[in-house]
């Protein structure tokens, strides 16, 4: 009898304990549920301050994609960003599953800095905004600038010029953030000499999501619900990295398309800045001669400091390209008839730094270099301009486009790196998509040297046995009065077909730049032999796929897929 009572009592106790365990599990599941009962962003993350989304968070310069986020964050420090990523990256989904995109100046083209239903981190809010210039050893050889990831390059330039210094490598347009260009590559006419901006970085501060073990990732509250789950998780972490300190993260983030971390500070090497620049333009009627002379110029880095070039499609193209060039250009070529064959011309521009020392050699260098070029004589034009004005030259073109209502419009741009052997075929493919007289914007064409690109970074360039590749930048502005949504989509489809043809196996071996690929399979083809490395870096630094959803490379992980 006693034994029977004890047995019944034990059974009741076991049932109560089982019920308690089940109750705890249900409570944990409810608290950890991915289902959101959220009224506003401020209800969600407690000490992580989120704001209601703004229209700008769903818009970028390209103006062809608009994905609204759930919330916006304006962090004051890297620690704020780390706290957000910790909350989102935990494998226990009591937080809403949301991806994060870093947005600087909003100059992406295809929604890369947007996060549909996620959180946009506006890096322009990061503090401190000041640019700190450091000169060690009494000379400029070891000088550098510590700058915030949300600083604009024009702000960096203005501060550095106060002490007669400047970064070596630039972008054409200076109103972009440091973190934004370093997440892509950052190129301009100095890249043949110094490499892209990602080859000119000494150190970074990055907020990333380091992978961590299950026992530290799963909260105590959610333990009962996930005790048998196998998961991968991470915590937001502020990491200082360089080529010798945390090098894998350093190289992953440079050119990493925002997939591995958010750049919050960067250390940029500096050089002595010239007071002025001798800026030269020369015109051509032969594409082959145009490219040959460009390659001659980039073979003389000891003399020439900048090399670019562009197509001249018609009178409007010539006029637009002359807006920033502060010298008369007496070039009035025959472009042919509208109904007949149209003639296309080309312009090389190069620059020589002018330190204005006694017996300055800048003018002599220009004469020496020009003597070896085969341009259409006498159509070479040269002018001396302040160094700041030269680097800021695109600002004048921006103001012109704004005055004509062509700045805040869709920009279906196409940027492609083409190996030297494929330049002529690609040019022909491109011209088949362009009608002179209907095209608004420049088409840049200039050479880059592949050995100036560090293969450890995540950036992708084409294989070019002779070490020369060209960038083709088709920078079109569309007038909404003449080109509506269907017209813009038709241009983008044209660009997709052109890119597919140029980048496919058996094509010219090109690689797109600043593009959003249409599918993960396209991304795999884009990265080619470096795809496995890119995937491994993602698994290490963002295992839950929280970062960079706008690129469309990796689908976001959820608790089910990580179990």
From TrEMBL:
**PROSITE patterns attached to this UniProt entry:** FAD_PCMH (PS51387)
Q: Which domain of life is it from?
A: Eukaryota
EC no. given is 1.5.99.12
UniProt KW Flavoprotein keyword: yes
Q: GO MF annotations for this entry?
A: cytokinin dehydrogenase activity; FAD binding
Q: Give the required cofactors.
A: FAD
FAD-binding PCMH-type domain: residues covered: 65-273
**One biological process term in Gene Ontology:** cytokinin metabolic process
UniProt keyword terms in alphabetical order: FAD, Flavoprotein, Oxidoreductase
For the protein in the UniProt heading, the enzyme class is oxidoreductase
Q: Would you identify the family this protein belongs to, as annotated? A: Belongs to the oxygen-dependent FAD-linked oxidoreductase family.
Q: Which PANTHER family match?
A: CYTOKININ DEHYDROGENASE 8, GULONOLACTONE OXIDASE
Its quaternary structure? Monomer.
Recorded protein name is cytokinin dehydrogenase
UniProt source species? Eragrostis curvula
């Amino acid at each position: 009898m006693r034994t029977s009572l004890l047995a019944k009592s034990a059974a009741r106790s076991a049932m109560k304990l089982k019920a308690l365990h089940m109750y705890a599990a249900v409570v944990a599941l409810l608290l950890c549920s991915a289902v959101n009962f959220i009224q506003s962003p401020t209800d969600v993350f407690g000490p992580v301050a989120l704001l209601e989304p703004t229209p700008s968070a769903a818009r970028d310069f390209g103006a062809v994609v608009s994905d609204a986020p759930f919330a916006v964050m304006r962090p004051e420090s890297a620690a704020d960003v780390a706290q957000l990523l910790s909350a989102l990256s935990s494998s226990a989904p009591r937080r809403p599953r949301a991806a994060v995109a870093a947005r600087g100046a909003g100059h992406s083209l295809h929604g890369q800095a947007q996060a549909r239903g996620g959180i946009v981190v506006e890096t322009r809010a990061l503090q401190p905004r000041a640019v700190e210039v450091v000169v060690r050893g009494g000379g400029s050889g070891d000088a550098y600038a510590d700058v915030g990831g949300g600083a604009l390059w024009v702000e960096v330039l203005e501060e550095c010029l106060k002490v007669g210094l400047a970064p070596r490598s630039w972008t054409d347009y200076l109103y972009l953030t440091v973190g934004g260009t370093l997440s892509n590559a950052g190129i301009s006419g100095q890249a043949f000499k110094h490499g892209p901006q990602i080859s000119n970085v000494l150190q970074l501060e990055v907020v990333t999501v380091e992978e961590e073990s299950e026992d530290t990732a799963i909260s105590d509250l959610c333990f009962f619900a996930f005790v048998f789950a196998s998961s991968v998780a991470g915590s937001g972490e502020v990491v200082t990295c360089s080529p010798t300190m945390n090098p894998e993260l350093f190289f992953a983030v440079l050119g990493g398309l925002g997939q591995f971390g958010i750049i919050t500070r960067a250390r940029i090497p500096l050089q002595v800045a010239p007071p002025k620049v001798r800026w030269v333009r020369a015109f051509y009627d032969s594409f082959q001669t145009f490219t040959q002379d460009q390659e001659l110029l980039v073979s003389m880095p000891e003399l020439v400091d900048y090399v670019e070039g562009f197509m001249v499609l018609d009178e409007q193209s010539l006029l637009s390209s002359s807006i920033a060039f502060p010298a008369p250009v007496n070039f009035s070529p025959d472009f042919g008839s509208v109904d007949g064959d149209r003639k296309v011309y080309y312009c090389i521009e190069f620059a020589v730094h002018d330190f204005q020392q006694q017996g300055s050699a800048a003018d002599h260098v220009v004469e020496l270099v020009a003597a070896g070029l085969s341009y259409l004589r006498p159509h070479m034009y040269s002018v001396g301009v302040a160094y700041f004005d030269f680097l800021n030259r695109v600002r004048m073109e921006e103001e012109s486009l704004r005055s004509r209502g062509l700045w805040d419009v869709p920009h279906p741009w196409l940027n492609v790196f083409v190996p030297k052997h494929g330049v002529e075929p690609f040019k022909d493919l491109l011209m088949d998509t362009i009608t002179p007289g209907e095209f608004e914007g420049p088409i840049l064409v200039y050479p880059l040297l592949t050995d100036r690109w560090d293969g450890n970074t995540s950036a992708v360039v084409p294989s070019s046995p002779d070490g020369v590749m060209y960038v083709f930048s088709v920078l079109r502005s569309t007038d909404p009065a003449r080109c509506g949504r269907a017209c813009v989509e038709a241009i983008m489809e044209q660009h997709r077909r052109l890119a597919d043809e140029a980048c496919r196996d058996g094509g010219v071996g090109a690689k797109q730049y600043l593009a959003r690929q249409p599918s993960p399979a396209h991304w795999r083809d884009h990265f080619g032999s470096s795809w496995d490395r890119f995937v491994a870096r993602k698994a290490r630094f963002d295992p839950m796929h929280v970062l960079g959803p706008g690129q469309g490379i990796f689908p976001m992980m959820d608790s089910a897929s990580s179990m």
